[in-house]
Amino acid sequence: MTKQLRNLILFIFLSLPSLMFSTHIVGGSLTYVYNGGSSYTITLKLFRDCSAGTASFPGTVNISVLGYNGQPFTPSRDITMSLGPVTPVPSNLPPCAQQPTPMPCTQQGIYTTTVNNLPPNPGGYHMYYQIVARNLSLTNVNASGNNIGESFYAYIPGNSVNWLENFTFANGTTVDNGTTAWSTIAGTPAPASASVNGNTFQITGADNASQTWTSQSINISAFTSGVNMSVNLSESGTLEATDSIMVYYQLNGGPLIPFATNGVITDDFGNAIASQSNIIGNTIRIIIRVHYSTTSPNSETYNFDNVTLFQNDFIANSNPTFTIFPPLFLCVNTPFTFDHSATDIDGDSLVYDFYTLIMEKTMLVH
Q1: Residues in the chain where the model's pLDDT stays below 70
Q2: DSSP per residue over 159-209, as a string?
């Protein structure tokens, strides 16, 4: 496997004139180590200008964890970490340089923790941390507005997604004839409504009503190691014990089989994920049925989202990490070399790419 090692320094331009921003962060990295199962050790390294009058490292940081489609999880999987060791970065003044007065000061702060709630996820996880405190002593940072920020990003790979419906349609949509086709049929009597609402499919209550949502027939014959499926479920209002949402699959046109996990849920439950693993066959459909009791007002709703079919191709992966911190001093008009190598505990080959990001014309390398 080949990994691309990117210097992801993103500039966040904000219009918040009522806030005062510190300007002390000069770089950093966000990395992870896979421990097996659902466990990862996450590490954020920040480097700050520790000259007189600059701000300290934040006491805690929050790492945002999003799904493959950029959506947050419910419940949240964001990671909060406290500041750990703070160490000085050696100056290592080169022979060609004259010692400045005062001598610049740079520190490294480390935040790390181990989490156990990141199981293999279709499409993986996006993790990032943002801080509006980019150091303005850097001459190739646009200092106008005194509000330049920096982002640190890491991607945890997941299973390949082969079929996804995340309902990014206009409210009121009741059918899709596109590449991820689906249809829906009301029972007798019909619910008060059943359609896309706020990028989910929502079914509102009515006495003894039912509704069935059905995906297209999906060809899975090429996936000889099997496929997995998942559906995000939620509800609101006060449901009755005989209200239910059921998630089935139909393999090769056969009978409807409930998902092994949360395939049938009754009454109130908040949020849940219905899932089914290791299905091998030629074709498959996903069917979702909702039924309401004889005393169900339209304040009761069932919702589902991210109907996903994905492969059994999870990759156990850990981030590469840079070996050393770049030099603090360079001499004008003097060639220099720097070992920007990295190590990878998985033994992967590493590929380096340089980017000019946002509207900046200059490249920042730390």
Answers
A1: 1-23, 133-148, 355-366
A2: PPEEEEE---S-TT---B-STT-EEEEE-SSPPSEEEE-SSSEEEE--TT-
| pLDDT, tens only, 292-310 | 999 999 999 999 999 999 9
CA nearest 244: which of 263, 272, 264, 225? 264
CA-to-CA distance for 366 and 89, rounded, in angstroms?
13
CA 315 – CA 348 distance, rounded (Å): 12
CB 165 within 8 A of CB 176: yes
pTM: 0.75
One-letter amino acid of 348: D
CA distance 25 to 90: 17
**DSSP result, 236-247:** ES---TT-EEEE
To the nearest 5 percent, what fractions of the chain are helix, strand and coil? 0, 45, 55
The residue to which tokens 């009761």 are assigned: 300
- Taking the C-alpha atoms of residue 263 and residue 258, their distance in angstroms, rounded to an integer, is 5
Residue-level pLDDT at 5: 44
Q: Cβ(154)–Cβ(34) under 8 Å? A: no
Give the pLDDT confidence of 148-183 residue by residue, as tens digits.
678 899 999 999 999 999 999 999 999 999 999 999
Six token digits for residue 316: 């156990």
Distance CA 72, CA 64 (A): 8
Tokens coding 163: 């079929």
* Pair of tokens at residue 54: 């600059």
Q: Are 61 and 80 in contact (CB under 8 A)?
A: yes
Helix (H, G, I), strand (E, B) or coil at 144: helix
What domains are defined for the chain?
2-158+315-353 (no CATH), 162-311 (2.60.120.260)
